[in-house]
Structure formats: C-alpha cells, structure tokens
Amino acid sequence: MSLAVRDLAVDIGGRRVVDGVSFDVDDSQRVGLIGESGSGKSLTALAVLGLLPDGARATGSIRWNDHELIGMPDRQLADIRGDEIGIVFQEPRTALNPIRTVGRQIAEAVRIHERISRAEARRRAIAEAERVHLPDPANIIDRYPHQLSGGQRQRVAIAMALACRPRLLIADEPTTALDVTIQAEILELLQSLVHDDGMSLVFITHDLAVLSQIATEGVVLEHGHVVEHASVHDLLTDPRSPITQGLLRDATATLWKPEGRA
User: Fold this and answer.
1) pLDDT class of 1 with cuts at 50, 70, 90
2) Where located (predicted)?
C-alpha cells in the first residue's frame, strides 16, 4: 500500500495555510515532513486522516491504496484510521483519556476493528504494552495516564497506534515534549517497530537532527509550501533552500552544544 498526496491545499477561515503540497510514501518507505512551527506539516498529516480542525477544508488529492481520502465519508475513514493508518501525536497527555486505564485504551483500538472478547482484548493489551517495552505490562495496563511518566505515556500512544498493525504510521513530533534521553529511546523504539512490521512512516518534526535518525527522505515546508524535497543525506550535506540551511544550522548547533550548557 502507498500514499500519494497531490496539490494538497488546506484553508481555514478563508486563509490558505497549506498550498500545493505533493509527496509520495511507498511501501516500507520512511518520509519526514520537516519545517518550523506554522509551516503546515501537522495540518498536512491531519488532512490524510480527515482530522482537520473544525472550519478547515482540504482540496487536492490524497490517495491511499488507490482510494481517494479527500471527501471520503467519515464512516469509511474511521475504518481506515488505526486499522490501515495509525497516528501518534506530539503530546500523549491530550491524546489519552484521563479517566480510562491505559490497557482499556490500547484494547479499545483493537476492539474497534476486530471482533474479540474482553478477555482477549486484555491479553492483546498486555502483549502490546510488552511490545513497546513498558515495564511490568500485566500491571501497568491497569494504571491511568497520570500515573505514568511522559515517556511511558508516549509508549502507550504508540501501542494504541500500532495495535492493529497498520501499514502506515504517522508520527507527529512524538518526541518533542520528552527529554533527550527518553527522546532517543522513543526514536529507537519507533525504528524497531517500523522495521519489524514493514510499515511505511511519515515522521513530522522541526529538528533535522532527529529526522536524520529515522527517515530516508525529507519534505521541507515553509508557510504551507514545499521548498525542498530530497533525500535526508542531501538535506544534510547539500541543502538548497534557505529554510533547510537554517534547520541544518540549528541541528548542528544542537549536536555540537558543549556539555553542561542548557
């Protein structure tokens, strides 16, 4: 299965915030959408699954496995979300329900798309918690989001997104709110899971250093426009657009920051 985005535009309140974005994601390919805050990268990703905010309108074409997603009835889109395309958001605290145990939330992702008993759903929740390396899976699934650390909550969000083994994962800045050590662990986990399941990946970030660790191709956005589209290697070694050059300077400054400085 592959994703093909062509001339995507997103308008909110009469203002165009994404304009003419096009890219492909082939089977098992890892593509990054990168840009500064407000560049349109997250709106582009949300448009794929019909999750744009109220008042937003998408035009152009988004084809998944030769099916047009723009204009698809929400009932049909709901069948695709989670089952064929999974998504992990930047801040799991807002993505998780605070009054439900994390195990119930992982299991719910499975029960929406598969006819299984509650007992089987619990077994699946434990298995998925173990798969994302949560400690003591059989017990942690009975906890609530506020009882987990930020890194553990993000692992729960990843487990929910991947529970039905989707063919494409969209990860919307999933490490931004985490400290550097936990960030590295989450990136390593995502790499491993994407590789093991043979998934395609759309990874959204503002950090070229992070992108270089997980994607092979990058689409650089600025003010809703694609300003550069190249391999991550080329973005790192021969950036053409001023925005990419700025992202590279920021990444280099982060990588070479002297120890002990904030």
Assistant:
1) low
2) Cell membrane
Torsion of CA 230, 2, 170, 44, to 10 degrees: 70
In a domain, 227, yes or no: yes
Residue 1 resides in a domain: no
Per the structure, the complete domain to which residue 112 belongs is given by 97-165
81 is written with which tokens? 């979300």
Q: What is the pLDDT of residues 54-65, one digit of tens each?
A: 999 999 999 999
* Predicted pLDDT at 259: 47
Are residue 43 and residue 107 in the same domain, yes or no? Answer: no
The number of domains in the chain is 2
Pairing state between β 85-88 and 168-172: parallel
Task: Supply 213's token pair.
Answer: 């660790």
Residues 178, 239 within the same domain: yes
8-state DSSP, 149:
-
DSSP three-state, residue 117: coil
Quick one: DSSP state of residue 18? E
Cα 241 from Cα 20, distance rounded (Å): 17
DSSP H helical ranges for 132-228: 137-140, 150-162, 180-197, 208-214
What is the predicted pLDDT for the residue at 114?
81
Q: Are 96 and 102 in contact (CB under 8 A)?
A: yes
Tell me the sheet residues that pair with 33: 204, 219
Contact 143, 102 (CB under 8 A): yes
- 186-236 confidence digits (pLDDT tens): 999 999 999 999 999 999 999 999 999 999 999 999 999 999 999 999 999
Q: In what order do the strands lie in the sheet with 225-231?
A: 85-88, 168-172, 200-205, 30-34, 217-222, 225-231
Q: What is the CATH number of the domain that holds 38?
A: 3.40.50.300
